[in-house]
Amino acid sequence: MTRIPLGAGPEFDRIRAAAAALGDSAGALGDDCASIPDAEGTVVLSTDASVENVHFRRAWLSAEEIGWRAASAALSDLAAQGAAPVGLLAAVALPRETPEAESTAVMRGIGRAAAAVGATVLGGDLSAAGEWMITVTVVGRAVHPVSRRGAAAGDPASLFGLALMYHNGLGVTANLQQAAKWYRMAASRGHARAKFMLGVMHYQGHGVEKDLIEAYKWFALAQAALPPGPDRDRSIKAANLIEASLPQEELEAARASAQNWASGD
Fold first, then answer.
1. How far apart are CA 171 and CA 161, in angstroms?
2. Of 142, 176, 201, at which residue does a domain stop?
3. Looking at residue 24, what DSSP letter applies?
4. Lowest pLDDT segment from 28-42, 75-89, 227-241, 243-257
5. Which CATH number goes with the domain that contains 44?
6. Distance of alpha carbon 234 from alpha carbon 237, whole angstroms
7. Both 155 and 123 in a single domain?
8. Tens digit of pLDDT for each residue in 180-204?
């Protein structure tokens, strides 16, 4: 069995079958990345395969674009876990008749994707195959990795990380409604910056209904919880702006809403 709850579907069924076959040799399968704690934090690793006619078609993309997309897909897994990229390894398998210029272009695209996030191409492998296959393994570092396992356990940092994934489209399709849901779950467990982000979303009406009373509540809660810094300053400024714009009756309702939440936080 995996140590992470998996959803339904053929892919997850295969992961469960693989975990059963591995037995005690299986780690925490099913997350976006593997995490290995060390003295400086956590090493985060992931691998991603791009196969011709499954993930891309050569008629639609140049060789350089294929390399760039393969590396970017793997690097997005690091972003989804809140890890800073360090480097990557690329295993490239192409038909023997592939011109050298095209294989070089694939590597150029991989290098471009790595350079865009400050990573280095550390090595890899070259092989022959019937179709184009590019497998990229990425290595990163994180102080507090975001994981589905942590979110399932209700860890505030993991919940906040999932909210950021949906907010910014990191490894998932951007979805502001989902972002608001995860921010709220993180905020309910005391995550200060999640409270700030909920204030911003309600103030702007992004992913949630525009509601100045809700925005005031979250900004007031955020400024009480955040350490000195830019987000706390923005919370104070936003709350002051809302105070100046609300009628007295609505302002009292906003203050009461913040106090009621704080008393149960």
1. 12
2. 142
3. G
4. 28-42
5. 3.30.1330.10
6. 5
7. no
8. 988 888 888 888 888 999 999 999 9
